[in-house]
Design brief:
The complex is a heterodimer.
Chain A: E1 9-23, E2 29-44, E3 47-55, H1 56-84, H2 100-106
Antiparallel strand pairs in A: 1-2, 2-3
Chain B: E1 4-12, E2 18-23, E3 25-26, E4 42-51, E5 56-61, E6 75-79, E7 93-96, E8 102-104, E9 111-116, E10 122-130, E11 140-141, H1 143-148, E12 150-158, E13 173-174, E14 187-194, E15 199-205, E16 213-218, H2 228-236, E17 241-245, E18 253-257, E19 267-274
Antiparallel strand pairs in B: 1-3, 1-10, 2-9, 4-7, 4-8, 4-10, 5-6, 5-9, 11-17, 12-19, 13-18, 14-17, 14-19, 15-16, 15-18
The chains are: A alpha+beta, B mainly beta.
């Protein structure tokens, strides 16, 4: 059998959240949705193989951090664009005619 | 002579980074201070730690050179990152392991500073044994005694979740909250547990242990957690297997602390069921 090369190789991540239930003292059930785990799959020619598993909270935190950094970078770029844009030349102010009293003082 | 073994944890959720620039603070209910001991000695018998993302170095110092060599760096420990090979689920690194131990003295205070990368979470936990801790007469047993009183083995599911703050303990969960197959008239010796996901520290707290914590890490360097407390008893040749009454299961509380938020390791507790109290002094 000859060697086979797989060219369609990619990574896919899937989050499986966890529903956490607690029976309270008053017999009610509190349900909390936890971030659970993110499983990263290696997909080779359509076949999915588990590659690694990450904590869901870590992944969501990293995504939030990246989003915040991107937003901050965009804002900084906008601010820079605003400050470096060519300014409209201010209309030339006409010199008021010298007052006679001033002329007298200077003379 | 009330003997006690106590778990403490110190952590920092987000370090500023730099050479020994961050000092860890004790978690809720925990302390970096050695309690006032009437007599006898204390010693740290086990210690483990974690950094959430990067390499880390811990400096442990104490008030006196009998515990740690000097006040500058004392004992330095390295904490490698991502033990277990996955960036998202690192496990704690063993720092102090049996048969080694470090003596500690009444009223002293431990200081833990770390060199880390900014925004990392660092968590360090340790077990201290006190020969005579006033107010506490902890129920601990030897393996021989537990085996001689054995009626059965039981594995019970409990699902504590770590806090939304990195390093902190989450909400305490009773050991009968998720699985109620305990028998009131029996005693249980907690020999260990297994988890689905690595977690820095699993804490057990019970009035029969003076409401002090007892616990251990779970992750790649500590794969054999199903026998953790039993192994401790064998390695130190001391009663180090915690016990509790079947009537008290609602007061045995399980908590987890991790370097990530909301980690849910799903703890399956492994106990030997006994016909009578196997603890030292309990028979």
């Amino acid at each position: 059998m000859s060697n086979r090369t797989f060219t369609d190789v990619k990574l896919v991540a899937e989050q499986v959240p966890e529903t956490h239930r607690t029976l309270e003292n008053d017999r009610t059930i509190t349900t909390v949705e936890l971030p659970g785990m993110v499983t990263v799959y290696l997909v080779i020619d359509g076949g999915r193989l588990p590659f690694t598993q990450l904590r869901g909270a870590d992944v969501l935190e990293a995504i939030d951090r990246a989003g915040a950094q991107q937003k901050a970078a965009q804002e900084a770029q906008q601010q820079q664009t605003a400050t470096t844009a060519p300014q409209q030349p201010a209309p030339e102010q006409q010199q008021p005619p010298a007052t006679p009293a001033l002329e007298q003082q200077q003379g | 002579m009330p003997r006690a073994v106590v778990l403490n944890t110190a952590s920092k959720a987000s370090t500023t980074g730099g050479t020994f620039a961050d000092t860890l603070t004790a978690n809720n209910l925990d302390s970096l201070s050695v309690p006032s001991l009437q007599s006898g000695q204390g010693k740290i018998i086990r210690m483990w730690g974690i950094d959430s993302a990067s390499v880390c170095e811990l400096s442990l110092t104490s008030n006196r050179p009998d515990t740690t060599h000097d006040p500058q760096f004392g004992i330095r420990f390295n904490i490698p990152p991502n033990l277990g090979g996955s960036a998202g689920t690192p496990a704690a690194a063993p720092l102090l392991e049996p048969p080694n131990s470090i003596p500690i003295f009444s009223g002293d205070t431990l200081t833990m500073t770390v060199t880390s990368t900014a925004a990392d979470a660092v968590v360090v936990s340790w077990l201290s044994e006190y020969q005579d801790l006033p107010g506490v007469s902890a129920k601990f047993a030897t393996l021989d005694r537990v085996q001689s009183l054995r009626t059965s083995d039981i594995g019970v599911r409990v699902i504590p979740v770590a806090s939304g703050t990195k390093g902190a303990y989450g909400t305490a969960r009773a050991i009968n909250a998720d699985d109620t197959r305990w028998t009131g008239s029996r005693y249980y010796a907690l020999v260990g547990f297994t988890v689905q996901i690595p977690v820095t520290t699993v804490s057990f707290r019970y009035s029969g242990w003076g409401n002090q914590r007892y616990g251990c890490p779970a992750g790649v360097p500590f794969l054999n957690t199903s026998n953790f407390f039993l192994d401790m008893a064998a390695k130190y040749n001391e009663p180090l297997i915690p016990c509790f009454s079947g009537f008290d299961v609602g007061n045995v509380l399980v908590e987890v602390a991790d370097d990530g938020t909301s980690t849910s390791p799903k703890v399956d507790v492994l106990c030997i069921e006994c016909s009578a109290d196997p603890s030292v002094g309990g028979y």
